[in-house]
Amino acid sequence: MTDPTTLPAPVLDRAIGAVLGSAAGDALGAPYEFKPSLPDDVPVVFKAGGPWELGEWTDDTSMAVPILEALARGDSLADAAVLGRIAGAWKHWAVDAKDVGIQTRQVLAITTFEAGEPHSVAEADIRSAATRVHDSTGRSAGNGSLMRTGPVALGYLGDGQEQALADAARRVSALTHFETDAGDACVIWSLAIRHAIRTGTYDLRTAIDALPVERRARWHEFVDVAERTQPRDIPGSNGWVVAAMQAAWSAIHHAELAGEGLQQTLERAVRCGNDTDTVAAIAGSLAGAKWGGSAVPELWRRELHGWPGLRDDDLATLAVSATAAYGRRMERRAGA
């Protein structure tokens, strides 16, 4: 595949799937959040629960939307002003959002809107805020940047775009998450999503090898643990980005071994307990990139909705626009 402006239908379906699969996992897991893990014989049901309506996505998808909208407009994630507008949208959303991650809320609270720009913050300002939060708490490797990274790959589907995608994923992560683990996880997952969209297959190991040499062995070991462990048995809190990624990959890996599809993958992810919506959203972005938007159950798609007043078709339209806008941007560069 060389031209993202003319994606084959299956590839386009998989690009849509990276977004819809994540939103579906998010909405499926929301009613189970902060509850104990579930055994295999207890069904996971698509339902309302807590503050969440049936099919309503949470902060996982809400924070991904401004990234997706930026890509759909043809904006570059290498542009500081674009990242400032994305962060500004997050800050507006957080004012009355039903749920905002603790670390993300702290960062956004000490970030200020730019003078004369009520819908934008300076990238340097929010990155500084993320550093201050890290310095005050001693840690900042929560799962809040990985949960929103699904759309990033849609801007980098063309040949030879792996390094540009890795740079963008890390830069978007660093807006709120200072620690290297968060950035590494976003790089790995975004590259794996890109590969799944382009080929219809999973390849997490090659994505890990895009990291600096000295960090690769550690991440390969994390994946080894995930592949021999069920999502609910992953060590550590899945609020930590590493454990969240392990739980998501465990669900994907074991579903693959069992010959299961997207729905069963997401159900496995939700059975992890605790941060169920986030783990399922993370799993859904990669599993959706393999299985496609067409694999999301129709019942779920009919009910999917959330901030800022979007539904499933809106997400799908934005995903299509993001791939087309990327192609147009590459054409402009070639003609410059």
TrEMBL record:
| Pfam families according to UniProt | ADP_ribosyl_GH
Any stretches that span the bilayer, and where are they? none
Organism's domain of life? Bacteria
User: Cross-referenced InterPro entries, in alphabetical order?
Assistant: ADP-ribosylglycohydrolase, Ribosyl_crysJ1, Ribosyl_crysJ1_sf
Q: Which UniProt keywords apply?
A: Hydrolase
Matching Gene3D superfamilies: ADP-ribosylation/Crystallin J1
* Sequence similarity: Belongs to the ADP-ribosylglycohydrolase family.
- This one is known as ADP-ribosylglycohydrolase family protein
